[in-house]
């Protein structure tokens, strides 16, 4: 049966090779190079063993400027630009239909004149509500109302599956209350963070002034000082991604008893929520912030809510607000020189508010059924390869292997688009009412999400639109999901050599599959339940291997003194390591025992590893990369490509010298799955 599955999966690439993009004539050659890899983008002066990323991509990196409206640029952005151009075409056509919801929404963003003419008038009723807050109880209720409008407040809450009872939805409560991306931006003492904090105070002062507020300088400094105290209470990124530490189920009465100084009952009641139970992710942060709010002047809390409101809706307000907001969050934090053109922002607005309404048209036009069928088979091939690798593990017990196979058998791969589309018929969209359309769409989405409570799990649901250039794994759903738009070159090219496709989309499939077996995903069993299904000895053996990977990534230093955080990025690093391993096995199996052809002097394994490196080509602006080191659980692209240093097959393919910067002795190479 395994052989038949492998044969069918191997033919997936052949089937896909006959499928052209729906809006293009069949190409005689791959999009990149002669076999699917951009050889002109290499830098052959860099030895593979010194820096495989630059060896594969250095020419491209040196010749490619980051567009002025982007903080970084690479393979993902190339496809995102294409996806947005296609979506623009759909929306431009819809704009001429007076009955089209997506057309009306798109036009309302495109037309800047009404937005500028109205000024802050659309948001003034909300700002007046904030100013009318009389006590901490009414503050709590309005903070909850703000959450329904998509405005961040002192806490964040959402509806999701109960990790230990995945057949039921439950309310989740998490730490919040910061205007900067993470606690470290307030607490790290280095000069770069200090400069950001200084710029942040100036930004808050500017926004308060633009909103017609007095005494802006003092109020901005006071709010930053308050947020610094909140940051001291926040859990770290590492602790906040720990599924065990963040699973704290309690009743609302328990929460209110633990944090008596904040009226949580009123907070939830403001949105007609009376949860019998909820999951509190970071209890000490929640209770600590509740106490901090109790002793904080009401006027300061009102300022925080006012500023969060203007930030959340800046893009729907006049340019004097939107430009000031971008100057800090876009330029200071990420280094992006200028805002995107208005049509791009309009496309994003519609995608965020009614994504699946656009998605239905997108997949009909750009994602033929044959491609979906081919990808279904390829996913099965990679899953089969994972099964073989599990069988070969020396560190895992037989009992755990049996459970791992049960988990593999339970997987639901989702390819391209949902089988059931969202219904937006209850959403009200009005011409020339951008602010109102944004507000109503956020409220509509909030109501949709909290409306899940007490209902069966929406197993058809997707967390991304078909237009996304991304993929994801959902532990509780036991699923891996690949939107239509990522299934294009360089990730997947129907005209490329199979080795490149396996190194690209094959490794991406393996990456998402492997997330279910990473340091957190492995805690969930075949039903999606947070439940240790390994023996204690298995856990110890697994941690011994993952600790080696943490140490390996801790050593990477993109800037002097600024290291990758191996513990924070561990899940993604395991995904990359295992994804490449599984995809490489799947590629070898697809050859059916025959040697891979030599193409332009390259072997099959060389093309596989080059295909992997190609999808991670990316140039960063320095501020963006600094921010990612603090907030992004993914390692910088260079180090993702360089995970090949752990593979014996890479050493055999490229013959790196023992003194090379990437060279690892055989016993130092990390092998987990």
From TrEMBL:
<dbReference type="InterPro" id="IPR024079">
    <property type="entry name" value="MetalloPept_cat_dom_sf"/>
</dbReference>
<dbReference type="InterPro" id="IPR008753">
    <property type="entry name" value="Peptidase_M13_N"/>
</dbReference>
<keyword id="KW-0479">Metal-binding</keyword>
<feature type="signal peptide">
    <location>
        <begin position="1"/>
        <end position="22"/>
    </location>
</feature>
<dbReference type="Pfam" id="PF01431">
    <property type="entry name" value="Peptidase_M13"/>
</dbReference>
<feature type="domain" description="Peptidase M13 N-terminal">
    <location>
        <begin position="48"/>
        <end position="418"/>
    </location>
</feature>
<keyword id="KW-0732">Signal</keyword>
<keyword id="KW-0645">Protease</keyword>
<keyword id="KW-0378">Hydrolase</keyword>
<protein>
    <submittedName>
        <fullName>M13 family metallopeptidase</fullName>
    </submittedName>
</protein>
<keyword id="KW-0482">Metalloprotease</keyword>
<dbReference type="InterPro" id="IPR018497">
    <property type="entry name" value="Peptidase_M13_C"/>
</dbReference>
<dbReference type="InterPro" id="IPR000718">
    <property type="entry name" value="Peptidase_M13"/>
</dbReference>
<dbReference type="Pfam" id="PF05649">
    <property type="entry name" value="Peptidase_M13_N"/>
</dbReference>
<feature type="domain" description="Peptidase M13 C-terminal">
    <location>
        <begin position="470"/>
        <end position="670"/>
    </location>
</feature>
<comment type="similarity">
    <text>Belongs to the peptidase M13 family.</text>
</comment>
<keyword id="KW-0862">Zinc</keyword>
<dbReference type="InterPro" id="IPR042089">
    <property type="entry name" value="Peptidase_M13_dom_2"/>
</dbReference>
């Amino acid at each position: 049966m395994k052989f038949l599955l492998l044969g069918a999966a191997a033919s997936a690439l052949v089937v896909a090779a006959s499928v052209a993009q729906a809006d293009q004539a069949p190409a005689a050659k791959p999009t990149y190079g002669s076999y699917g890899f951009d050889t002109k983008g290499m830098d052959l002066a860099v030895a593979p063993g010194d820096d495989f990323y630059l060896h594969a991509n250095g020419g491209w990196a040196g010749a490619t400027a980051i567009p002025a409206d982007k903080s970084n640029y690479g393979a993902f952005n190339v496809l995102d630009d294409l996806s947005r151009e296609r979506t623009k075409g759909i929306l431009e056509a819809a704009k001429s239909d007076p009955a089209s919801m997506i057309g009306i929404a798109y036009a309302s963003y495109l037309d800047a004149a009404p937005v500028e003419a109205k000024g802050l008038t659309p948001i003034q009723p909300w700002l007046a509500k904030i100013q009318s807050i009389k006590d901490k109880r009414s503050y709590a209720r309005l903070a909850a109302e703000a959450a329904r409008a998509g405005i961040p407040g002192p806490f964040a809450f959402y509806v999701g599956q109960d990790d230990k009872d995945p057949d039921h939805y439950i309310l989740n409560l998490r730490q919040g209350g910061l205007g900067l991306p993470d606690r470290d931006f307030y607490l790290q003492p280095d000069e770069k963070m200090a400069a950001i904090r200084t710029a942040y105070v100036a930004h808050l002062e500017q926004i308060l002034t633009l909103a017609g507020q007095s005494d802006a300088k003092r109020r901005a400094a006071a709010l930053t000082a308050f947020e610094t105290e909140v940051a001291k209470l926040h859990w770290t990124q590492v602790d906040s991604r720990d599924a065990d530490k963040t699973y704290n189920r309690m009743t609302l009465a328990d929460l209110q008893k633990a944090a008596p100084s904040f009226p949580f009952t009123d907070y939830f009641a403001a949105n007609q929520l009376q949860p019998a139970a909820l999951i509190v992710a970071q209890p000490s942060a929640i209770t600590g912030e509740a106490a901090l709010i109790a002793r904080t002047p009401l006027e300061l809390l009102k300022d925080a809510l006012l500023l969060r409101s203007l930030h959340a809706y800046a893009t729907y307000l006049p340019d004097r607000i939107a430009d000031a907001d971008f100057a800090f969050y876009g330029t200071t934090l990420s280094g992006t020189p200028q805002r995107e053109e208005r049509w791009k922002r309009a496309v994003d607005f519609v995608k965020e508010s009614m994504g699946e309404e656009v998605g239905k048209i997108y997949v009909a036009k750009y994602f033929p059924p044959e491609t979906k069928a081919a990808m279904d088979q390829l996913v099965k091939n990679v899953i089969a390869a994972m099964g073989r690798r599990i069988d070969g593990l020396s560190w895992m017990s037989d009992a755990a292997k049996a459970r791992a196979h049960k988990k593999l058998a339970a997987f639901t791969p989702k390819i391209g688009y949902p089988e059931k589309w969202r219904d937006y018929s209850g959403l009200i969209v009005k011409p020339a009412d951008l602010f109102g359309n944004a507000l109503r769409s956020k409220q509509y989405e909030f109501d949709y999400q909290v409306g899940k409570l007490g209902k069966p799990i929406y197993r058809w649901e997707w967390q991304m639109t078909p237009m996304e250039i991304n993929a994801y794994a959902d532990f509780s759903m036991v699923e891996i999901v690949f939107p239509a738009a990522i299934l294009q070159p360089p990730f997947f090219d129907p005209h490329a050599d199979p080795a490149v496709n396996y190194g690209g989309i094959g490794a991406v499939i393996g990456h998402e599959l492997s997330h279910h077996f990473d340091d957190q995903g492995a805690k969930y069993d075949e039903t999606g339940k947070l439940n240790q299904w390994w023996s204690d000895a298995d856990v110890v053996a697994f941690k011994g291997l993952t600790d080696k990977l943490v140490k390996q990534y801790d050593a990477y230093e993109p800037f002097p003194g600024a290291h990758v955080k191996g513990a924070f990025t561990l899940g993604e690093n395991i995904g990359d390591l295992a994804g490449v391993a599984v995809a490489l096995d799947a590629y070898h199996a697809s050859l059916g025992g025959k040697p891979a052809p030599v193409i332009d002097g390259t072997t099959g394994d060389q093309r596989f590893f080059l295909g992997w490196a190609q999808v991670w080509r990316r140039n960063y602006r320095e501020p963006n990369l600094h921010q990612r080191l603090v907030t992004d659980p993914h390692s910088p692209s260079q180090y993702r490509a360089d995970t090949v240093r752990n593979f014996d097959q890479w050493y055999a393919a490229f013959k790196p010298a023992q003194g090379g910067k990437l060279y690892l002795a055989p016993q130092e190479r990390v092998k987990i799955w």
